[in-house]
From TrEMBL, chain A:
This is Pyridoxamine 5'-phosphate oxidase family protein. It comes from Bowmanella yangjiangensis. SUPFAM superfamilies: FMN-binding split barrel. It comes from the Bacteria.
UniProtKB/TrEMBL annotation, chain B:
Pfam families: GAF_2, PNPOx_N. InterPro entries: GAF, GAF-like_dom_sf, Pyridox_Oxase_N, Split_barrel_FMN-bd. The lineage of its organism: Bacteria, Pseudomonadati, Pseudomonadota, Gammaproteobacteria, Alteromonadales. PANTHER family: 5'-PHOSPHATE OXIDASE PUTATIVE DOMAIN-CONTAINING PROTEIN-RELATED (PTHR40660:SF1). Transmembrane segments: none annotated. Residues 162-326 form the GAF domain. This is GAF domain-containing protein. It comes from the Bacteria.
């Protein structure tokens, strides 16, 4: 991926989707091209809509955070379970940051909404709280400017590049 | 030295109940992450991931085969991060069919049958398993432990003496020790590429004699591929065995398929499993179990039934060998004793059609194929010679019967015939009269009509 690409402004509908308490996975790669991944437990987008921040439990994300701190390369996939709408973003300027007080305060809302989404699959609330729970002092934030987005909703179009600034079909 | 977590101990994560995340890396060093519909346990060192779409993951693993998989235990929420090495993609065969069937269950469960079509099963070697720290729930898998139940089943299968007793003991044991209420035992007719139901439990009608072609439904695919097929949810593609049976007849998938006897089975099974019964690499039969509830048969149950079916395979093989020995023994096969049956009342009209060996008793369909031809031979012998005792050897020597030369499964055909008669006739019955011998008990005079 070329670093010349300028970060794009995300469409408001896309921002709404990313921050609507859906499933998140974050991956990074080492300089030796070895990958690792972790579940995200929340997401926010800055006011200019050009930087995505994903919250992760630091204790679970150790290899991911280490690679990101080294080379800034990141891929993050967002999936809305009940519709299968899935989108992946990539960036090369990711940074590991401390989670803010607002990030920590936002976790219960994430757990509640995500649990509600999974209820239709028979997933119990306690399961989601266990899977995505995170101690306040364990939460880390990874922020990056999205350089490219890919549609990953299952179907013939899966894998196609999405023009940034457009909503997800 | 710290031991790696075994793949067997985390098989629960590989049921596809919670989607796994898969990360790969391209030649340019950029990571890629996606969700995979299904991960599957292959053996203690390998997993398979479903390949449904050509995408970046595919492109990446072809250049850089090392990937990372994050999987979750659907019961405890424990997380495991696997480092895996892509080896190959299978687009047909046992592994592919196992995954295809399982994916069909997941697709129906989630309402996306049209989208979730398997292109291939990507096989990966597991290089490392990391137990990711974090909160976990206590396991709720407090069902009866499998091994003691299996031991009781094996004990009860130890004494059989006949195929009849063996298949009954198997299905009864599954009910008693594993709480499996719906089951069927189907014998393979390999030359005809189909299976016929010999015994069942838990259905309004037994369906004895009902047939299913190889390759159709869970049972047919298990037979064709000689591999256990297990589905955790109602799978529309495999769901209605009975409907598929009718469809197979309609489409002429098997021209000689038994069409008169409805296939047994639940109309909407939540969980299904079919296990082939083999001996020396040869398919003998298929055991099928099902439940109206989803997620009833896990990997451990599959292992248990595969082990039981291995025992069944040996036992059936032994019975066949004993039958063959009886066949080659040059003793007088049949002492021509007159029938002691008292045939009274109105005649029993038996109509026989040589085209498909179908046989009707008083205009009501009974059976066709080999079993029909056998009964026709027996009835003709009674009428011509006045004897009603027969030997298996005699039937094998009888050139007119359409028995295959190798592995004729005569015992299974006689058992099928005997059970059909039990269900459909009150004046004709088969009764064992010794090893390799039996009597046909007839209580009415005969009127034989051939087409």
């Amino acid at each position: 991926m070329s670093q010349n690409n300028a970060a794009q402004i995300l469409d408001p509908q896309m921002v709404e989707l990313l921050t609507s308490h859906i499933s998140i996975h974050v991956a990074s790669s080492t300089d030796q091209n070895q990958v690792s991944l972790v579940r995200g437990v929340g997401c926010r987008v800055n006011a200019r809509h050009d930087r995505i921040t994903i919250l992760v439990p630091r204790s679970q994300a150790e290899p991911v955070l280490r690679s990101i701190a080294k080379n800034g390369r990141i891929a993050a996939v967002f999936n809305q379970p009940e519709t299968y709408r899935t989108v992946q973003f990539k960036g090369v300027d990711a940074q590991v940051e401390n989670a803010t007080a607002e990030d920590i305060a936002a976790l219960p809302a994430y757990l509640r909404s995500f649990s509600e989404r999974l209820l239709k699959y028979g997933v119990k609330e306690i399961y989601v709280h266990t899977l995505c729970g995170c101690e306040a002092d364990d939460m880390a934030a990874i922020s990056f400017s999205p350089l490219a987005a890919y549609l990953q909703t299952p179907g013939a179009e899966a894998g196609c590049k999405l023009p940034l600034g457009r909503p997800l079909p | 030295m710290m031991q790696m977590i075994s793949l067997e101990s985390i098989r629960n994560c590989l049921e596809g109940l919670v989607p796994s995340g898969v990360a790969t890396c391209g030649a340019d060093g950029m990571p890629n992450v996606t969700l995979v519909s299904q991960t599957m346990y292959v053996d203690s060192h390998h997993i398979a991931l479903s390949f449904q779409f050509f995408n970046k993951t595919r492109e990446n693993i072809l250049v850089n085969p090392i990937a990372s998989v994050l999987m979750m235990d659907p019961d405890t929420a424990a997380r495991y991060r696997l480092m895996v090495h892509y080896l190959r993609t299978e687009t047909s065969g046992p592994l592919f069919e196992r995954m295809r069937a399982k994916l069909a269950g997941i697709a129906t469960h989630e309402g996306v049958e049209d989208v979730f079509k398997l292109k291939g099963a990507d096989v990966y070697r597991v290089l490392n398993i990391e137990h990711v720290p974090g909160r976990e729930l206590p396991s709720t898998q407090y069902g009866a432990p499998i091994l003691p139940s299996m031991r009781r089943c094996i004990d009860s299968l130890g004494q059989y003496g006949s195929l009849d007793a063996l298949v009954d003991k198997l299905l009864d044991s599954l009910d008693r020790y594993f709480d499996i209420r719906h089951s069927m035992f189907l014998m393979a007719d390999v030359p005809e590429n189909k299976l016929y139901t010999l015994c069942s439990r838990g259905y309004p009608t037994s369906g004895i004699g009902a047939e299913i072609p190889f390759g159709v439904g869970v049972i047919g695919v298990a037979a064709r591929e000689c591999v256990p097929i297990r589905i955790l949810f109602a799978a529309s593609e495999y769901q209605y065995t009975r409907a598929m049976h009718s469809e197979a007849i309609k489409q002429g998938l098997s021209s000689g398929l038994e069409a008169e006897i409805p296939f047994p089975g639940l109309t909407s099974p939540g969980s299904q499993m079919a296990v082939p019964i083999m001996s020396n690499g040869r398919l003998l039969a298929v055991l099928y179990v099902e439940s109206p509830l989803p997620n009833q048969f896990g990997y451990d149950m599959e292992d248990a039934l595969v082990a039981l079916c291995a025992k069944m395979g040996e036992s059936i093989q032994l019975l066949q060998l004993q039958a063959q020995q009886g066949y080659s023994t040059k003793t007088n096969p049949t002492a021509a004793q007159p029938c002691s049956n008292r045939a009274e009342g109105p005649s029993l009209k038996v109509k026989y059609f040589s085209r498909d060996h179908s046989l009707f008793l008083d205009e009501e369909y009974l059976i066709k194929g080999v079993a029909g031809a056998i009964l026709w031979y027996l009835l003709n012998t009674i009428q011509k010679e006045g004897r009603c005792e027969f030997s298996n050897r005699e039937l094998r020597l009888e050139g007119q019967l359409p028995l295959p030369d190798i592995a004729d499964n005569l015992d299974a055909r006689l058992l099928l015939l005997s059970r059909r008669l039990q269900e459909r006739s009150d004046c004709l019955a088969i009764e064992k009269s010794g090893r390799g011998r039996f009597k046909l008990l007839l209580q009415r005079p005969l009127e034989l009509v051939k087409d």
